[in-house]
Specification:
single chain, mainly alpha, 62% helix, Ribbon-helix-helix protein CopG domain-containing protein
């Protein structure tokens, strides 16, 4: 791989030049670095130009965001207790509104076994499962 660099000169619109200048001010990168990165992205060969200052700034922003998220999590903890209390109330209300079945499944099964009409006719319509 050759380390030779080729100098390329281009003319861009004043609007683009202004955008590059603004981006240079925001990121702290030189115009040359920004244009090399833009060409690299176009060619899928991006070279990252991060100065220690921009890394420090990014780290500071991430720390700030992390603290913000931790504060939000802490503010949600009281709501967790409220949700648990509401769930307990819902369970209690369901027990009041939906009474327990008075017939146990085992007694229903024993009634079915006690049915002495085991001799069904082949053409008979079975209606034992219908409720009277």
């Amino acid at each position: 791989m050759s380390l030779d660099n080729t100098k390329i000169e281009i003319t861009v619109s004043s609007e683009w030049a202004e955008q590059f200048n603004q981006l240079s001010l925001e990121t702290g990168h030189s115009l040359e670095e920004l244009i090399q990165e833009a060409i690299g992205q176009y060619l899928d060969k991006t070279r990252v130009f991060l100065s220690s200052q921009s890394v420090d700034l990014e780290y500071f922003n991430l720390q700030k965001e992390l603290l913000n998220l931790q504060e939000k999590v802490e503010s949600l903890k009281p709501l967790l207790n409220q949700v648990a209390k509401l769930e307990a109330k819902i369970v209690a209300l369901e027990k009041i509104v939906i009474p327990e079945l008075s017939i146990s499944p085992s007694s229903t099964f024993s009634k079915f076994l006690a049915d002495d009409n085991d001799q069904d006719e082949p053409d008979e319509i079975l209606t034992d499962f219908l409720v009277d």
